[in-house]
Specification:
Elements (H helix, E strand, L loop, with lengths): L2 E5 L5 H10 L3 E5 L3 H9 L3 E2 L3 H5 L4 E4 L4 H9 L4 H4 L5 E4 L5 H13 L3 E4 L2 E2 L1 H7 L2 E6 L2 H14 E8 L3 H29 L4 H8 L7 H4 L23 H18 L4 H18 L7 H5 L8
Parallel strand pairs: 1-2, 1-4, 2-3, 4-5, 5-6, 8-9
Antiparallel strand pairs: 7-8
Helix pairs in contact: 1-7, 4-6, 9-12, 9-13, 12-13
The structure holds nicotinamide-adenine-dinucleotide.
């Protein structure tokens, strides 16, 4: 059993932290939203009133925050994690952030003698609750070895991708595939509707044909064919369209900086920018289907 500080108890962080509690660890959680901390405490966690309080004596620090600036702030600020953590603590950042921020924070942690990994996840809120997440890990071998038992209690698949920042690189590439494939599947359902083809029939064909993909068979954007998908609950997230937009922007920044050619990633980013501007940003990202079909307002 370890003492763990968990910072960021949102849609993903709280179920992940609760799985560490279930595994027998003493987990102190902090979030800027007090309601999330209270909900965590109801499920066996220890409620902390600040990052500093959560860190007291923690051997392991896990962060699950929205974006790069939040992670830089949480680790690097004057009273942040690097200034307050117990010497030798292991740091695991599971947020999806830009590679540069991940490398800057890891370097600052290493300068202060802390072992740190970037370990963003895929698998969504369902995977977070069921402890079936996939972790994409970047960092030195020794730090990854220390982190593995904790990651295994929150997920099912752990891939060590290389040095600091490579977990984030894998995550950004994966989510560029996801953003493009969800837009593609949604365009197909919108076209089917115009052509008088029943959505279930398109699903029956494409789920067994070359159009098969995760966006279709696990997270289908039309209600009915996959009962667990957000389309069946009014597109409540899940993974918000704004989070997808954030990840597509990260992919395009990275593509520009590295000279990679990603025209479909750029198109998908534009689609999600328009969706967000139309008011759909807080909905699940699969709401792109009703957006393309001209029915977004039915869900706002
Ligand atoms: P979320 O907005 O639900 O949770 C983030 C939480 O961080 C919020 O509760 C917020 O109050 C808290 N927070 C922000 N700054 C803080 C600070 N300085 N100290 C303490 N708490 C702070 O987001 P989420 O859906 O849980 O996503 C978290 C990360 O995981 C993101 O980077 C996202 O891209 C990634 N991710 C999300 C999903 C998904 O399906 N939701 C899947 C894979 C990866």
């Amino acid at each position: 059993m370890s003492k763990i500080a968990f910072i960021g108890l949102g849609n993903m962080g709280r179920p992940m932290a609760e799985n560490l509690v279930k595994a027998g660890h003493e987990v102190a959680g902090f979030d800027m939203a007090a309601a999330s901390v209270q909900a965590f405490a109801k499920n066996g966690g220890i409620a902390a009133r600040s990052t500093g309080e959560a860190l007291a004596d923690a051997e392991v620090v896990v962060t699950m925050l929205p974006a790069g600036p939040h992670v830089r702030g949480a680790y690097l600020d004057g009273e942040g994690i690097l200034a307050s953590a117990r010497p030798g603590a292991l740091m695991i950042d599971c947020s999806t952030i830009d590679v540069d921020s991940a490398r800057a924070v890891a370097a600052a942690a290493s300068d202060r003698g802390f072992a740190m990994i970037d370990a963003p996840v895929s698998g969504g809120t369902g995977g977070a609750a069921a402890a079936t997440l996939t972790f994409m890990v970047g960092g030195p071998d020794a730090a990854v070895e220390r982190a593995n038992p904790y990651l295994a209690q929150m997920g099912k698949t752990i891939v060590h991708c290389g040095g600091a920042g490579t977990g984030q690189a894998a995550k950004i590439c994966n989510n560029m595939i996801l953003g493009i494939s969800m837009a593609a599947v949604s365009e197909a359902f919108a076209l089917a509707e115009k052509l008088g083809l029943d959505a279930q029939k398109l699903y029956d064909v494409s789920s067994k044909s070359s159009g098969q993909c995760w966006s279709l068979t696990t997270y289908c954007p039309t209600p009915g064919p996959v009962p667990t998908s957000p389309a069946n609950r009014g597109y409540a997230p899940g993974f918000t369209a704004d989070m997808m937009l954030k990840d597509l922007k990260l992919s395009q920044q990275a593509a520009q900086a590295s000279g990679a050619v990603t025209p479909l990633g750029a198109e998908a980013m534009t689609v999600y920018q328009l969706l967000s501007a139309a008011g759909g940003g807080a909905k699940d990202f699969s709401v792109v289907l009703p957006y393309l079909a001209g029915r977004l307002c039915d869900f706002l």
